[in-house]
Amino acid sequence: MNVWSRCCRHLVHDARTVRRRFPDELMSRIEQAVSDGERRHSAEIRIAIEASLPLRDLLRGRSTRQRALEVFAQLGVWDTEANNGVLLYLLLADHAVEIVADRAAHGAIDASVWREVCDTVAAACRDGRFEEGLLSGVVALNVSLAEAFPAREGDRDELPNRPAIL
């Protein structure tokens, strides 16, 4: 990918881009999908949406994966009781999606499942189907997490279910 074309894409995406693509009503639907799914499993899903990366990061060649790892730590997704938190990170300027899973979730679910979810969400976003993409990603994550971590008596919701806008 050409660094200059990537920089241009990132320069035109800002917080307003996120708000246009993800209005409050859609954010509420995504939040509800996460909440509904988490009733069926003991894992935690956190979604983060970022418009673009700073120019200095782009010029240094920072990858979406590197940023997702940083967001995973910043949002405390690693800090769940059962170490089964999962971050779905969307970088709008690149239409790139990454999943970062904590130790237990990483070990319980095959990497091909994570990649398939990422590919599905990213393809939908490239086509402008942001709602469909993220909601289908949440559903797929919930199915996999319910198989690996069935709901237990006394489970509590440890992370916010509303997507974080960065």
Q: Briefly, what is this?
A:
The protein has helices spanning 3-12, 15-21, 24-38, 55-59, 64-74, 103-108, 111-126, 130-148; strands spanning 44-50, 85-91, 96-101, 164-165. The chain is α/β, with parallel strands linked by helices and 166 residues long.
Q: Report the span from N to C terminus.
A: 24 Å
**Percent helix:** 40-55%
Broad CATH class: Alpha Beta
Could you please say which CATH topology applies here?
A: Diaminopimelate Epimerase, Chain A, domain 1
Largest sheet: 4 strands, mixed
> Unreliable segments (pLDDT under 50, ≥5 consecutive)?
none
The global form is globular
Alpha-beta content class: alpha/beta
Order of helices and strands: HHHEHHEEHHHE
The largest beta-sheet arranges its strands as: 3-2-1-4
Number of domains: 1
CA radius of gyration is: 15 Å
- Any idea what the CATH architecture is? Roll
Mean of the pLDDT scores? 92
In terms of DSSP E residues, the strand content is 5-15%
Count, helices: 8
Instruction: Please tally the β strands and state the result.
Output: 4
Model description:
- The protein is α/β, with parallel strands linked by helices.
- It has one domain (3-152, 159-165): Diaminopimelate Epimerase, Chain A, domain 1.
- Helix content is 54%, strand content 13%.
- The chain is built from eight helices and four strands.
- The chain has helices at 3-12, 15-21, 24-38, 55-59, 64-74, 103-108, 111-126, 130-148; strands spanning 44-50, 85-91, 96-101, 164-165.
- It is globular and about 50 Å long.
- The model has no long low-confidence stretch (mean pLDDT 92).
